[in-house]
Write a structure and sequence with these properties.
Elements (H helix, E strand, L loop, with lengths): L20 E2 L5 E6 L10 E6 L2 H5 L1 H4 L5 E6 L1 H8 L5 H18 L3 E3 L8 H14 L3 E2 L7 H7 L4 H19 L5 E3 L2 E3 L1 H14 L4 H9 L1
Parallel strand pairs: 3-4, 4-5, 5-6
Antiparallel strand pairs: 1-2, 2-3, 7-8
Helix pairs in contact: 4-5, 7-8, 7-9
């Protein structure tokens, strides 16, 4: 359930009049959801960015106190911007959303894929969301869930490469170093952090993960 909001707070985060949830104006909605159980838990607010103005003002939106994360609304954005609802046309706003969210330390969730019968297109779109750095992707139908979930799980090859980086970093850390190589490529702290994030996303915490975490 969602209702229009009222008040004089910033337009992307106005206080709702409803009891269950509230949405701010369409250019950058903030959705407030109440948990189904545990009434004492604080409500979580997610900003829905679905207009060019919302993208331009992201730097301020993501620093709203209490904001849990941001979501991208591709259809409304494309209509407002006059662009096509395609990957190439939406690459810029999607990248801006991820960048602003990362800078604020909150997750960004990608827009839904609207063609229900195009599973290959959904898979490509979900993999692009992973590539851009989104933490998740909205589904508009249950049949999309498995494809999206698979896209956000690292492949065996990605896990193998990540573990190689962590093993190399662990070995060099024991010697007091920071730079090393893995599979013929230079490995430094940023790549180690990326490997750690990928392994954690896959739900695998190896001994190398623990060792590198302690050494960093």
């Amino acid at each position: 359930m969602a209702r229009r909001v009222c008040g004089t707070l910033p337009p992307w985060l106005r206080r709702g009049c409803g009891r269950t949830s509230s949405w701010s104006p369409r250019w950058s909605r903030a959705a407030r959801s109440r948990p189904s159980c545990g009434a004492q838990a604080a409500p979580k607010v997610w900003a829905l960015i679905e207009s060019p103005r919302g993208v331009v003002e992201l730097a301020g939106i993501v620093r709203t106190p209490g904001l849990a994360g941001v979501l991208f609304g591709a259809a409304d954005y494309a209509a407002a911007a006059g662009c096509q609802l395609t990957s190439r046309a939406l690459w810029y706003p999607r990248a801006q959303l991820v960048t602003a969210a990362a800078a604020a330390g909150i997750p960004a969730v990608d827009s839904p894929f609207f063609s229900l019968d195009d599973q290959d297109g959904l898979r490509r779109d979900a993999l692009e969301a992973v590539e851009l750095g989104f933490a998740g992707k909205v589904a508009v139908h249950p049949r999309q869930l498995s494809v999206i979930a698979q896209a956000f799980v690292p492949s065996p090859r990605e896990l193998e490469s990540a573990r190689a980086v962590l093993d190399a970093a662990c070995a060099v850390a024991k010697e007091g170093g920071a730079m090393t190589t893995a599979d013929g490529a230079m490995v430094g702290p940023p790549l180690v952090e990326a490997a750690l994030a990928l392994v954690r996303r896959a739900g695998h915490r190896s001994s190398a993960t623990t060792s590198v975490t302690k050494a960093s």
